[in-house]
Amino acid sequence: MKNITRILKTAITIIVLLLAFTTTASAQSKADEGAVAVTVQMKKELSLNDSQYSKVLQINKDYLNSVIKANKTEKSVPVRNKRVKMISASREKKLKSVLTDGQYRTYAATRAKNQEMLEKYQE
After folding, report:
1. Quick check: 70 and 87 in contact, CB under 8 A?
2. Are 60 and 53 in contact (CB under 8 A)?
3. pLDDT tens per residue, the chain (123 residues)?
4. N or C, fewer C-beta in 10 Å, the chain?
5. Could you tell me if 62 and 88 are in contact, meaning their C-beta atoms sit under 8 angstroms apart?
6. Domain total in the chain
């Protein structure tokens, strides 16, 4: 009887871990997919060089992963909105450090379109 209980507990633990891994992997792939889509669009609009592309891609991945995490963990809407606003401000600062002044001005002019595209991958 003790063996059956131990086996059942082990099986349940394995199932829970697999579900957690699958959910995390799914969110990760969605963030990666969104980051690539937005970064490809930004590369076209801003004429990013290869170095800039790599940096902007990482910035966008970090941004989406952070927003997805905040959306899942923050239950209070005002707290969640404040957290997302801080994440967005950090992204803007990082982008500004990677882009030239001209590229950043162009990016700022199309920011709403890029943000709309990113929001599709935040859920």
Report:
1. yes
2. no
3. 666 776 656 656 666 555 554 544 444 688 899 899 999 999 999 999 999 999 999 999 999 999 999 999 988 999 999 999 999 999 999 999 999 999 999 999 988 888 888 888 876
4. N
5. no
6. 1
- Cα gap 48→104, rounded to integer Å: 11
Nearest to 99 by CA among 26, 46, 62: 46
Residue type for 103, please? Q
Phi, psi for residue 75 in degrees, rounded to 5: -80, -35
* DSSP H or E segment with residue 28: helix 2-46
The parent domain of residue 58 ranges over 2-119
